[in-house]
Specification:
292 residues; Mannose-Binding Protein A, Chain A; 52% helix; binds methyl alpha-D-mannopyranoside; binds calcium ion
């Protein structure tokens, strides 16, 4: 029996020749199996789609997480890149600073060298100036002494001579220039006088005072007009007068080596113990006297 609607088909009907698409029992079995599978397959698909859905969500979460992580890492990378470029910039500027400082250092080094040599030159000039000052001071002192001498002699003695009572005295002052007794006497004569006759205590004190003030050495003797060349031990002034009182140093006169016949006076702290006999050709300074 044929039917127009599928719902009207029974299982038994499928075995008839009226159903061209289902003509044997195997086909019927297949249909039944399909029917059974169709019922259980919809659960499977639901599970699968649920799992797939969950997986999709998971993937989505993972992708979102990854992209968040990526953006964070990439931000960090960008920051690091920025820091690195800043550091590079700083390094370059430090390098430039270093170069500038090195150049400044070498310039300063040169300047220092120049300043040092200028300092040396100035030091040399300063030393010269100092020695000039010393020389000028000495000159000033000499001039002042001369002035004092002139004042002391109340203008009655020639320049450079000193006055004691009515006599002018000259103390040779020609640097290191020294002479024997005779040559010294000749100089005094040339000046209009003669070697000094120191025949009073007052005169000896005057002479000693001048020599003390001159700050000369212990052996810077000055010839006076006294000799014993005629008779050893008999001292006479150059005008022939006998020596009444001598102002010898202790132990003098000793006629050392039997060769000392002329007398000289020396700087001493004891003004009345100042004379020594010395060889007449011995170079010494000398004292002249002159009546104005
Ligand atoms: C010197 C000389 C002499 C003097 C003695 C004193 C060495 O000779 O100046 O005239 O008597 O010194 O020691
Ligand atoms: Ca002597």
């Amino acid at each position: 029996m044929a039917s127009s609607s599928a719902e009207t088909y029974r299982r038994d009907d499928f075995g008839t020749d009226d159903m061209p698409f289902c003509n044997n029992s195997e086909d019927l079995q297949e249909v039944s199996i399909l029917t059974v599978r169709g019922e259980t397959g919809s659960g499977f698909y639901r599970l699968a789609s649920t799992i797939l859905g969950l997986l999709s969500v998971l993937f989505l979460v993972v992708i979102i997480g990854m992209s968040v992580l990526y953006s964070e890492v990439s931000g960090r990378h960008d920051r690091l890149a920025l820091n690195s470029s800043q550091a590079n910039g700083e390094l370059e500027s430090l390098k430039a600073d270093y170069k500038r400082l090195a150049a400044t250092k070498s310039t300063l080094h040169e300047e220092f060298g120049k300043v040092l040599s200028e300092k040396k030159a100035l030091q040399v000039r300063l030393e010269r100036a100092m020695s000039q000052i010393v020389a000028l001071r000495q000159e000033k002192e000499r001039s002042e002494n001369q002035l004092k001498i002139s004042r002391d002699s109340c203008g009655r003695c020639p320049q450079g001579w000193r006055l004691l009572n009515a006599t002018c005295y000259y103390f040779s002052d020609e640097g290191l220039h020294k002479r024997g007794w005779e040559q010294s006497r000749q100089d005094c004569v040339n000046k209009g006088g003669d070697l000094a006759v120191v025949d009073t205590q007052e005169k000896q004190e005057f002479v000693s005072e001048v020599l003390q003030a001159s700050r000369l050495g212990y052996w810077d003797g000055f010839w006076i007009g006294l000799k014993d060349d005629h008779t050893e031990g008999v001292w006479k002034w150059r005008d022939g007068a006998s020596l009444e009182r001598g102002h010898w140093r202790e132990g003098e006169p000793n006629d050392f080596y039997s060769a000392e016949d002329c007398a000289a006076t020396y700087p001493t702290s004891k003004p009345l113990e100042a004379w020594n006999d010395a060889p007449c050709n011995h170079p010494l300074k000398w004292i002249c006297e002159m009546s104005p």
